Amino acid sequence: MAWQQSDLDALDANIASGVLQTRFADGREVRYQTLDHMLLARRMISNELTLQTQAAQGFVRRKFASFRSGF
C-alpha cells in the first residue's frame, strides 16, 4: 500500500488527542489496541514515506551481502 502524508497527519493528530482509532485517506479505519501500537504504525508509515520520497528524487538504496568463510 502506498501511504500518503495525510495518513501520517491523521495518525499524528489521533496520537496527540489520545484517540486509538484512525481513518486513513483510502477510507480504511483502524482501531489500535494501545498507544505503543499506534507509535509503531507511525514509525512504519514515516519510514515508508521517506523511502518513497527518496525514490522519487532518484536515490537508490543498495544492499550488498558479505560472507565469511569461518576459517
Please provide a written account of the structure.
With 71 residues, the protein is mainly alpha-helical. The chain has a domain at 5-50. 49% of the residues lie in helices and 8% in strands. It has helices spanning 5-17, 35-56; strands at 21-23, 29-31. The chain has a two-stranded antiparallel ribbon. The longest helix is centred in the middle third of the chain and has 22 residues, at 35-56. It starts with a helix and ends in a 15-residue tail after the last helix. The mean pLDDT is 89.
Strand segment count: 2
Beta-strand residue fraction: 5-15%
List the helices and strands in order.
HEEH
Counting DSSP H or I runs of 4 or more residues, the number of helices is: 2
Q: Report the average pLDDT across residues.
A: 89
Largest sheet: 2 strands, antiparallel
Distance between the termini: 44 Å
Which helices and strands occur, and which strands form pairs?
Blueprint (H helix, E strand, L loop, with lengths): L4 H13 L3 E3 L5 E3 L3 H22 L15
Antiparallel strand pairs: 1-2
Helix pairs in contact: 1-2
Short overview:
By secondary structure, the protein is mainly α. The chain contains two helices and two strands; from the N terminus they run αββα.
